[in-house]
Write a structure and sequence with these properties.
This protein is of the alpha/beta class. It is built from 17 helices and 26 strands.
């Protein structure tokens, strides 16, 4: 996508598909002309308030049409978006806004109280509510401002496609989130790859149940690139998804395995689900064989597994529909694979510190390069150099290739847990635990879990009596529910290495010794 900006791509969608249905939520439907016209008006309103390329705007908005108009309106205008995961804490959001020096914040009505607490900790120059009911003190209603603007296309001469436009915060091994910087070109390259790898077609009707600011973004704009319809459900509720499938010709969705399991458990699936739902993209964790068998019996061969990272958005490898069929019929070991490298990425496995491809079957770190890799980490030159040195993205994942080019993930060099589709760095949870007055030492690991893929588990040494639930609630208050341990194990002492460091490998061995890989 060299030389292309979000504005150019969105305008192209409006021109090609003006009268086709683009967006649906509840009882409201928008054509491409209406949806992209409305987001252009939002972009113009933000410009008129003085925001320019390079300025950063935080978005504290749940999945909704308002999020679509705010997010893609800012992108259309070349303004850098900083999506805030609504499940994280006020403290994390305050850090992110301060770290990126955000000039503006957009809040919806559902997160008004959270926004007020956030603004008590951090100063931003401008505050917008998505509607009059979402306006905080000294703020303005963005929909009212947008109502005064035009909806036609307009090329902004100051937009450089190679410049930053999306900062996605991801967990940090040092205890603080780090901002991964994408340009128009890198993010659009990733999304173009998603359109190809996830089998998106011109008649697509995609039901969105994962956050549109995070994993859901892998499907949203790609569906528009192909002229399909995005159906916003506002989060994952099995009954709502069932109703959507019953009432519309839903052809695709993106879920994490925990959602697939809950969806199957929710009741009898309508015949329409079996006949029209042709693609279920899943990620964050490989699917278990029993769940896959049950799912394929219910839906047929519709599954695509995506392996990616924030740094190479959703585009490292895929395990396609035909691969899933092959796994069920002949090669069950493929269900432990991440699939084959995607078309836009070069993927290799290397020995320690090098950049030379290891022999087939050899275990090493997975490296990626391609047009979709981030520019770097905001305000973190050392981490940027370590991660992007010598022209490759060092993923921190350890794996191997088999003789057929399938990539297998075996472990993580970086101390990260993937739970229910979210990335959690152990250090961030340990930092919160260590603030608890009863905790003397802590070690956080991910353990295998059928529901979550990996469950955040804290092993602690106490210096005073404390209930496990109280410790979990303490972390939840500081970091949000995603980071809160699912369980607490109290021990007299933590195992140590010969260098006197906590031996996480020994702790993890207790839970992973019967598995063929140390990630899930």
């Amino acid at each position: 996508m060299r030389g292309r900006s979000f504005g150019a791509v969105l305008d192209g969608c409006a021109m090609r598909f003006a009268r086709k249905p683009a967006l649906s939520s509840g009882e409201r439907d928008w054509t491409y002309g209406e949806a992209i016209g409305s987001l252009r008006a939002v972009g113009r309103a933000l410009r008129k308030q003085g925001l320019r390329p390079g300025d950063r705007v935080g978005l504290l908005i749940g999945d909704s049409p308002e999020l679509v108009l705010s997010l893609y309106g800012a992108l259309w205008a070349g303004i850098t978006v900083v999506p805030l995961n609504v499940r994280l804490s006020v403290g994390d959001h305050a850090y992110m806004l301060e770290d990126c020096e955000a000039r503006a914040l957009i809040v919806d009505e559902k997160h008004l109280e959270h926004g007020a607490r956030l603004l008590s900790q951090v100063d931003v120059e401008m505050v917008f509510g998505t509607s009059p009911g979402a306006v905080l003190d000294d703020g303005q209603a963005l929909d009212v401002l947008a109502g005064r603007e035009g909806i036609g296309p307009q090329a902004f001469a100051d937009i450089d496609p190679g410049s930053e436009v999306w900062i996605q915060y991801t967990g940090g091994t040092t205890g603080r989130p780090k901002g991964a910087i994408h340009s128009h070109e890198t993010m659009l390259a990733a999304l173009f790859g998603c359109a190809l790898e996830f089998d998106i077609r011109p008649d697509e009707v995609c039901a969105h149940v994962t956050p549109l600011t995070h994993s859901g973004a892998a499907m949203f704009l790609p569906v528009w690139m192909r002229g399909g319809t995005n159906l916003i459900l506002g989060g994952f509720e099995p009954d709502a998804l069932l109703h959507a499938i019953e009432s519309r010709p839903v052809t695709s969705t993106l879920m994490v395995p925990t959602m697939i399991s809950s969806f199957l458990e929710s009741g009898n699936l309508p015949d329409r689900a079996r006949s029209e739902l042709r693609t279920i993209v899943y990620g964050a964790a490989p699917i278990s064989r029993p769940l896959l068998e049950q799912s394929m019996d219910a839906f047929g061969p519709v599954f695509i597994q995506g392996y990616g990272q924030t740094e190479a958005f959703s585009q490292i490898a895929t395990l396609g529909k035909s691969d899933h069929l092959l796994a069920m019929r002949e090669r069950p070991e493929l269900l432990s694979s991440a699939g084959r490298p995607v078309a836009i990425a070069e993927v290799i496995v290397v020995g320690d510190g090098g950049v030379e491809q290891a022999e087939t079957g050899a275990v090493g770190e997975i490296l990626v390069r391609g047009p979709h890799v981030i520019l770097g980490y905001l305000n973190k030159p050392e981490q940027t150099a370590a991660t992007l040195g010598e022209g490759w993205l060092r993923t921190g994942d350890v794996g191997r290739f088999d003789e057929d080019g399938y990539l297998y993930l075996l472990d993580r060099k970086n101390d990260m847990i993937i739970t229910g589709g979210f990335n959690v760095y152990s250090k961030e949870v340990e930092t919160a635990l260590d603030d608890h007055p009863a905790v003397a030492q802590s070690c956080v690991i991910g353990v295998p879990d059928e529901k979550w893929g990996e469950a955040v588990t804290a092993v602690v040494v106490l210096e005073a009596a404390a209930e496990a639930d109280a410790i979990i609630d303490f972390v939840k208050a500081q970091k949000g529910s995603v980071y809160a341990p699912k369980s607490i194990e109290v021990v007299e002492e933590l195992p140590q290495t010969s260098l006197g460091k906590v031996d996480k490998s020994a702790l993890r061995e207790r839970f992973w010794s019967d598995r063929d890989r140390a990630v899930n």
